Amino acid sequence: MKRLVLETLEVLLIALAIFFAIHFMLQNFRIEGSSMEPNLLDGQYVLVLKTPYWFGNNPSRGEIIVAHHPTGGEDVIKRIIGLPGETVEVKRDGSVYIDGQKIEEPYISSPPGMPHPAEVVPPDNYFVMGDHRDVSADSRVWGTVPRNDVVGRAWITIWPMHDWGFAPNRAIEFESSTSALQPAYP
Question: Which helix (H) or strand (E) holds 140?
């Protein structure tokens, strides 16, 4: 009997340790609104991997991240466009320029109708935008996202089941270039 109790406690402790380890590394996130369409839809759930940016790794351009809202609201999900030290500008036609070079954005639903003046991204900050630019409140509205506010990278779409798959993290290329600026990994 004593052995059964000890084995049961051991199994429960291992299960509890696994639960907390998974919770520490992953977070589920529900997409609310249409700011990430056509790639992520209202009501979808994604798993957010918290570990990619541990140990000095930094987010890459093109990755979809979840971050704490800069004004203290609920967490947001957006795509990284500008990296620390870069100058980001959105022209009247919706084209996005980084350090004066236009980038290709095949993942957006339509170019933004709102231009944004050239802005240098501060150190340890990221310029983020939604993929559905006309309805997205993002760095054009509330400023850049500090590195410490990044929760993690969108990893897998888990709900609804028919949408299951890797999140659409994509490398972003300069329009005149065939090589990616920085890779984004699934």
Answer: helix 139-142
Catalytic residue among 60, 78, 136, 139: 78
Q: pLDDT, tens digit, for every residue of 61-101? A: 999 999 999 888 789 999 999 999 999 999 988 889 999 99
Give the pTM: 0.82
Checking if the pLDDT of 3 tops 80, the result is: yes
> For residue 67, which of 128, 112, 120, 136 has the smallest C-alpha distance?
128
Q: Give CA angle at 55 (123, 140), nearest 5°.
A: 30
Bridge partners, 77 (sequence order): 66
> Domains, the chain, ranges and CATH?
27-182 (2.10.109.10)
Say whether 35 is catalytic: yes
Q: Which is the catalytic residue, given 35, 60, 136, 139?
A: 35
pLDDT of residue 180: 43
